[in-house]
């Protein structure tokens, strides 16, 4: 286990993974206890000074001194104390807060809203980055015109641009989706061009020898090679996308979402609830990462397997159906926002797509067991 780049068995990985989680929880509990405070259980005790007394003036100084003196007297005479955790809540308190968040603050509805905004941002970013990236990466005219500006986009201060997006799109969902999509485009577009440059010459020479046209070369060589690697880059952007969507939801808390919920809990200084929401975002991001890993293995199996997987075609059909439903839902929201029948058709199509995927997975697992 201490060999450089050594391999762990499945049992070792599982055991160490559980131990790692336990260590993190123990460290969390220790930090919470270390930063805890004892406050007296007395009526009228002020744990913090009023915000209006923070300005420097003689009158405020006198008021501060009198408040502190009164509190000191109350603390000195107190006979009962209780422990509070103002900085880091206990892990158990965070777990308990999920029930309250689900019943009173519509936690899961807000999570679904943030996920939907996240999916829309990804959709527009990929839809724009792939064709533009191929144009700039493959055609010398466009590369000469736009390669430098595209590279310079990486250095844009995105959080500073949110005011511009508010002016352009307002403070509602359109602004949030546009800001998230732009935040992904800034990093994804240069990556598409880089992945095009990384396509190995041996494949290009083979397609040239076989007499493939430019379009055939793009379809059979460039597109599979670039998209197979690009999906890994999109995985990395998961954390970035959630950062931007939370920032955007801070702007208009009335719209809902996990970012708005965190804002409200911060104003109320409810630390267990804030930690619970943050952990939920981490969990959603982790699940998104696993989904991208799954998509990479099933849409581009040649990167992971040496033979064709029976059932993979059905899985690809199901995945493309789900992506098509996502595209229809995004465009329907823009073009026909009042068309309610789309939801029923989307539900039926999603169920059919999931059936295709499950059937394909069954065939793959059956072939693995036979071998």
Would you write up a description of this structure?
- With 371 residues, this protein is mainly α.
- The protein has 3 domains: 10-86, no CATH class; 95-300, MetI-like (MetI-like fold), CATH 1.10.3720.10; 305-371.
- The protein is built from 13 helices and 2 strands.
- The chain has helices at residues 10-34, 58-77, 91-104, 107-138, 140-152, 162-169, 173-197, 201-209, 214-251, 258-267, 271-299, 312-335, 341-370; strands spanning 37-40, 81-84.
- A two-stranded antiparallel sheet has the order 1-2.
- Helix 3 crosses helix 11 (271-299), helix 6 (162-169) packs across helix 7 (173-197) and helix 9 (214-251) packs parallel to helix 10 (258-267).
Strand content: under 5%
CATH class membership of the largest domain: Mainly Alpha
Main beta sheet, described?
2 strands, antiparallel
- Would you list the SSEs in sequence order as H and E? HEHEHHHHHHHHHHH
CATH 2nd-level architecture of the largest domain: Orthogonal Bundle
The CATH superfamily of the largest domain is MetI-like
CATH domain fold name of the largest domain = MetI-like fold
End-to-end Cα distance: 30 Å
* Cross-sheet strand order for the largest sheet: 1-2
Structural class: mainly alpha
């Amino acid at each position: 286990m201490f060999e450089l780049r050594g391999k762990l068995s499945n049992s070792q990985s599982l055991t160490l993974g559980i131990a790692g989680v336990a260590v993190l929880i123990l460290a969390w509990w220790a930090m919470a206890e270390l930063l805890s405070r004892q406050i007296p259980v007395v009526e009228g005790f002020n744990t913090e000074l009023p915000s209006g007394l923070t300005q420097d003036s003689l009158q405020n100084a006198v008021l501060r001194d009198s408040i502190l003196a009164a509190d000191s007297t109350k603390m000195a005479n107190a006979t009962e104390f209780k422990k509070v955790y103002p900085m880091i809540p206990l892990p158990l308190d965070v777990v308990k807060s999920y029930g309250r968040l689900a019943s009173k603050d519509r936690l899961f509805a807000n999570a679904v809203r943030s996920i939907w905004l996240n999916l829309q941002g990804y959709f527009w970013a990929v839809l724009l980055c792939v064709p533009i990236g191929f144009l700039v990466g493959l055609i010398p005219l466009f590369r000469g015109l736009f390669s430098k500006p595209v590279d310079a986009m990486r250095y844009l201060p995105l959080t500073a641009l949110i005011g511009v997006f508010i002016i352009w799109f307002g403070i509602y969902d359109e602004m949030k989706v546009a800001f998230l999509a732009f935040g992904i485009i800034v990093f994804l577009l240069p990556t598409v061009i880089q992945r095009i440059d990384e396509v190995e010459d041996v494949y290009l020479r083979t397609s040239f020898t076989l007499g493939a046209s430019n379009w055939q070369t793009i379809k059979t060589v460039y597109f599979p090679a670039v998209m197979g690697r690009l999906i890994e880059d999109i995985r990395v952007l998961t954390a970035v996308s959630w950062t931007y969507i939370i920032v955007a939801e801070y702007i208009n808390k009335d719209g809902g979402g996990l970012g708005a919920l965190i804002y409200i809990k911060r104003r109320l200084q409810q630390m267990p609830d804030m930690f619970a929401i943050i952990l939920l975002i981490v969990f959603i991001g982790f699940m998104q990462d696993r989904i991208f890993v799954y998509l990479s293995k099933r849409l581009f199996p040649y990167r992971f397997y040496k033979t064709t997987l029976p059932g993979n075609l059905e899985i690809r059909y199901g995945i493309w159906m789900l992506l098509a439903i996502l595209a229809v839902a995004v465009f329907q929201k823009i073009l026909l926002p009042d068309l309610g029948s789309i939801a029923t058709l989307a539900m039926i199509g999603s169920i059919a797509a999931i059936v295709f995927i499950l059937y394909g997975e069954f065939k793959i697992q059956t072939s693995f067991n036979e071998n």
